[in-house]
Amino acid sequence: MVAQLSPAARHGTGPLASLMRDGALHCVFQPLADLREGSVYAHEALIRGPHGSLLHAPDALLAQARTEGVLQDFELFCVFTALEQWSAQATPGRLFVNISADALVHGVGMVGMGKLGEAVRSCGLNARMLVLEITEHERVTNMPLLREAIDAVHACGARMALDDFGDGRSSLRLWSEVKPDFVKIDKYFIREISDRPENLQMLQAIKGIADVFGTTLIAEGIETQDDLRALRDLDIPYGQGWLLGRPAAMAREAIEGPALDVLDDRRVAVLPHLEQTARPSILRSLRVVQAPPVSPTTTNDAVAAMFHERTELHALAVVDGTQPVALINRQQFMNHYATLYFREVHGRKPCLAFANTAPRVVEQDCDVEQLMGILTSQDQRYLSDGYIVTDNGRYIGLGTGDQLVRAVTETRIEAARHANPLTFLPGNIPISLHMQRLLDNGTEFVACYADLNHFKPFNDNYGYWRGDQMIRLVARLATMHCDARRDFVGHVGGDDFMLIFQSSNWRQRCKNIIQDFGREALALFDESARRSGGIHAEDRHGVRRFFPCTTLALGAVHVTPGRFRHAEEVANVAATAKHEAKQTATGLVLHTGMCPPQT
After folding, report:
1. CA 227, CA 517: separation in Å to the nearest integer?
2. Under CATH, what is the fold of the domain 420-591?
3. Least confident span in 116-125, 191-200, 326-335, 561-570
């Protein structure tokens, strides 16, 4: 912000001080693109040393500035150089300039709180076109002074950005304190976002934070067309990266052609499948039996009295202080208690001798999935005894085996709606979400409902193991013949699949799937069935008859903008087309009837 050098830089003998005095540093400018409009929105100024020298790269320059003790002076000199060289180009659009928090505080203090705008204008730039981008987040040493400096920045009309959010150094607190106009998402979360569902989840979380703070997001490090398409469809407004434009001495008027092709292409990205992110299966969602505990010294007579008084209890926990140490099963204990002379011999003795001293103890926030060992354990006591529930190691109650079975079943059903456990393909919810994104975007596509002909007789005759092989065969062929960047393959359940095509040659892809399935599925039949062309099995009414070898049917519906509003409508028409396809020799039907009424 100031052209003058500090005494350390003016009189320093280091190579960087010499470069600064000689004006040997220059800026290159990298474009930031508007991902909605496909235009250049702004440029970021990046400092460079002499070409071919050891101090050409910015990291080398910063390291040398620390070595020579002129870091803040160097940062301010870079800001001044960026403003001066940008102004000389007379290019429209905003300019992003990097500066650390401490250098910003120092620079505002040197210029004066009320004279910042004047200092920027003296460099030939309107302050409203300047965005100061805070870097080196871990070096914020005085937050009150930083807030004052940021107030001065906003007062003169300039704007603030937070760089590299999520790189391990950036702070959510700093975001809250600074309240930047822009936040740049670190390239770690952007790279391969089209293939990495965990990055997609993180980006969606960052979007939620940005909505809370009213911040505009910029994606850094965009290098592939697939990642750019995904970011556009996630409604990230701005982006930066080599695909859009590399740093250059002169500002750009347009982004690179391959990037523009993606932004002009209205086909929707097939986002990586997101597993269910919520945790409805934790024990907090289950009813904990509020059973009073007994101590290790409680007598067997006292335990029997508690069971007589509380007839609904299936067990009692033995607790030493607050820590559970054993579990007494009601039925087993009362069977012992009813035997001849038990009361006389054991009635006044401690109950621990007739307790399970190795009970299953689980924390309240444990996933039900982690309790599968109770259901699969060879020791079936765990199923009859249930389990002890603790909160931070302290006893709070009991859980029953039947509760656990029900909870695991419900969890599996819910999980299957997100990802089919047999094929690992997206389930009903991701299918509907993807289809709705296409409808909302006004994208033309073809939805195909796939179903197997005569699958039930095959499954009944050969067993579920070979039936699962056939279903996985459909999944493999559908995935193989679809374009992963354009087409979506989902598993509704059983032998039902949904294929959503944006590929223009969808019809040929469907034919290939049907033909390959017809050929490869024969290997799952016995030799005698292959020779005769089918098997004898009972139909749904219990009548034994002949069924041809299993084939695949695909019912398609061509979705044009405005024809449907809801994914459910598309699925219903595709299901109707599937029923028609099952009656044809080709196994493929394009539905041409009327669509359902708009609601």
Report:
1. 32
2. Alpha-Beta Plaits (3.30.70)
3. 191-200
